[in-house]
Design brief:
By secondary structure, this protein is of the alpha+beta class. It is built from 18 helices and 23 strands. The longest helix has 15 residues, at 263-277. Bound molecules: iron/sulfur cluster.
Amino acid sequence: MSEGIKEHCGLFGVYGHKEAARLTYLGLYALQHRGEESAGIASFDGNSVYSHKGMGLVSDVFDEEKVSRLGGHVAIGHVRYSTTGSTTLKNAQPVLVDYSRGTVAIGHNGNLVNGAILRAELEARGAIFQTTLDSETIIHLLARPEHKNFEESLVFALKQIKGAFSLVIMKEDQLIGVRDPHGWRPLCLGRLGGAYILASETCALDLIEAEFVRELEPGEVLFINKKGPRSIKPFGESKRVAHCIFEQIYFARPDSYIFGESVHLVRQKLGHRLAQEHPVNADLVIPVPDSGTPAALGLSHESSIPLEMGIIRNHYIGRTFIQPLQHIRDFGVKVKLNPIRELLKGKRVIVVDDSIVRGTTSKARIKKLFQAGAKEIHMRISCPPIKYPCFYGIDFPTRKELIAANNSIEDIRKFLGVTTLGYLSVEGLLSCVSCPKNYCTACFTGDYPVPFGGEANKFATEYKGY
Ligand code: SF4
């Protein structure tokens, strides 16, 4: 798992099932990898809206009693990652508000590049915000009274915001799914008997045995109510599609199908290509588990060098981890990953990871592998060097902290202490997806699909509302 990259958010929604909240709870379980800091569900039973949110994993926040109190046939749910400092319950989603047109709940995955400007404008007119979330800006915009109905006010709000946003919205007896016109973050539609499901990733549909219908299109707003689903495309002329390629490299679960591709198969292709771009003689290929595994498989197939699970990951590290009293060197690395000495001793090893961000965790891991007896370590990274920050909802460190922004590959190799180092090229990365022109690669190339202008500095220091 890449150090320094934080997951963002996961969305789930149900319309037309008597156990909507229970299904949502299960869906959030499947999406837990997209955000571990808070979880929440809001539901509607035809008369009342219910909601429960809390800090921590889905299993920390919900139990049988809490789920059974969330009645109704409509529900939306959210799991969230946030930057430290903004990790507070008031920022947990869905955001739920009562206003002149009733009650609305909203869950957001992404980041608005004009969120801070819109917020400042709204505050200048007297708006009082309860959270520091982008999502609340959307609610303020749609609560304006000058529009005829909810749909008109939602379209008005969506046209004001810029950047990355996949949304699930519950407006009493209606479930709404939204993808921004660039399609940065995933969102798909499923069916379970007569019920409709929205989910960030198809792995959540699989868990509840819902059938995958399709992905929402970039720029699509899908209204689902008792009459069934109805789509509108309010954003006008088509914009450059810019799916986040990091979803394929790292964020999404490998058993998901997103942006028209199997994530696992894309990651395997990355490994094949990596082997072609950086061939080396070695005895073993070992992945950094878990996210390096599919690429390591591909690299092993392509190079005919055997794959071994030479590093074992501890999956059971909770949020509140009690540190040892006595100083143990590299404890953080040791507790998560442990190499198998008997496999590594005297071997030339290719270590496959999905990315390097700051480089400090990789350096500590490499040291452990040499201590375990590896003779040579050839590090292969299944994405290009990360040189630029992301303004669309992924919390990379600042440019100063990104090792590849400030160092040559040879400098990074020396810093890590590896025998050789090979990153996948941008062309190689794009050759592994079926529609390369439809991807954002700004963190590698600096080619930002939507400019962020004068807000760049603000975003570097301010809270981002993933
Ligand atoms: S800049 Fe990188 S991480 Fe951010 S949306 Fe684009 S591809 Fe994804």
